């Protein structure tokens, strides 16, 4: 397991959709995103006041610190404490619901001891946080975090298989309807982007922020992945591009093929371990 200090090719899929109509992408990806600075200040004050010395770390992770937030994006929080018992955490009951109403997801709560021992179950989540985070209070526990890359590899393989199974299940019940394909793409592409980002971080053995389109730019035929398809999925999912029903169905079929290619590639990584 990685160490940290205790203190604070197959060919790409053949279903290649025609180019969909381009909707001008906003000049700044976050131009319509609400300013969350006052919310973060309130969350920090509430957490520090409610938890006191029990609070080890309060941080934000995900799309906001990475600069990819959309108007609908949640504020993702992680709270590390010494004691996570119901009694010790009950002080947050007066605040967490208000945070949720203001756009924050329910926080991930973990003890400092669990943080040290849980990389095998939270490998991809920890890699994502290590690559992009903002510490709001307490110690930056990820400052000395080094991923166990072998555990990350296993997690990538498992997550790719799980996502491919779910994607196929959802596609099979669409009856080939474009509106259902759009919904599936919008629902699932953020999770796939996170998986692809973790794949690139694993391959390069780095922990730093990577935007989605930076991830696509690393793709090549060696993995059997087609960056043009992933670009279209990303843009359709974020509603930067419009498409006809026929184009959406074709894009969905390409998505299925690419999910299979990704799964096969990640399955093969254990054959190339140095």
Summarize the structure.
The protein is an alpha+beta fold. It is about 50% helix and about 10% strand.
Beta content comes to: 5-15%
> Can you tell me the overall shape?
globular
Largest sheet: 4 strands, mixed
End-to-end separation in angstroms reads: 17 Å
Helix/strand/pairing category: alpha+beta
Alpha-carbon Rg, integer = 20 Å
Work out the helicity level: 40-55%
Count of DSSP helices?
Answer: 11
CATH uppermost class of the largest domain: Mainly Alpha
Strand order within the widest beta sheet = 4-3-2-5
Uncertain residue segments: 1-30
What does this structure look like?
The protein is 51% helix and 10% strand. It is an alpha+beta fold and 274 residues long. The protein has 2 domains: 37-144, Beta Polymerase, domain 2 (2-Layer Sandwich); 149-272, Up-down Bundle (Four Helix Bundle (Hemerythrin (Met), subunit A)). Helix 10 crosses helix 11 (245-268). Mean pLDDT is 86; it is low at 1-30.
Give the SSE layout.
Layout: E1 21-22, H1 37-51, E2 55-61, H2 63-66, E3 76-81, H3 86-89, H4 93-101, E4 108-111, H5 112-117, H6 123-131, E5 133-138, H7 149-172, H8 178-204, H9 212-217, H10 227-237, E6 241-242, H11 245-268
Parallel strand pairs: 3-4
Antiparallel strand pairs: 1-6, 2-3, 2-5
Helix pairs in contact: 7-8, 7-11, 8-10, 8-11, 10-11
